[in-house]
Design brief:
alpha/beta
Length: 181
């Protein structure tokens, strides 16, 4: 039985590409999920767990003004974290998680507000960006549930971007998830 992490490792291995991870609310769970897969060393460059807001700026080059004005729980912060991970660790793909797992709200955002992001390469044929995408999520459940679902969702978003295609149903779900943000 395959898992999203195993699929990521397999697809990146076939493509000869690499991934780096920037995490906040997931605290290293994304990196742990990927590195649990045999053969991950061929594709996994590394990770930064930037739990403290100032580390997002210092280690991942997230805009300090953005952090000051909007806080760490923001779609642009997630996108900049993914781009920062990709750049700092010289990977083909960067992925990121930021959000509120609870028990209390953060930066004016309720528990269950999560942003996941992917930053990736351009396609060689068209020059089109196939890798930049952020998803806004409203998750329910316990702190552990929210964190694990965030892992699943960011890996799913990466798989979607690696494949470079979405079905109409996935587009409808993205619209629903991103509505209101």
């Amino acid at each position: 039985m395959s898992s999203p992490a195993a699929d990521v490792v397999m697809l990146l291995t076939v493509r000869g590409e690499t991934v780096a991870v920037a995490e906040s609310l997931t605290g290293g769970l994304v990196a742990a999920e990927i590195t649990a897969v045999p053969g991950a060393s061929k594709v996994f460059r590394g990770s930064v767990t930037a739990y403290a807001t100032e580390l997002k700026h210092r280690l991942l080059d997230v805009d300090a003004t953005l952090l000051a004005e909007r806080g760490a729980v923001d779609p642009q912060v997630a996108a900049q974290m993914a781009a920062g991970a990709r750049k700092v660790m010289e990977a083909d793909w960067g992925i990121a998680t930021t959000g509120v797992a609870g028990p209390d709200p953060q930066d004016g955002q309720p528990v269950g507000t999560v942003f996941v992001a992917v930053d990736g390469p351009c396609t060689t044929e068209t020059g089109a960006d196939r890798g930049g995408k952020t998803a806004a999520l409203r998750l329910n459940g316990s702190r552990a549930d929210i964190r694990m679902e965030s892992v699943r969702r960011v890996l799913g978003l990466l798989l979607e971007q690696i494949a470079g295609e979405q079905t109409g149903n996935e587009r409808a779900q993205d619209t629903e998830r991103n509505g209101g943000f």
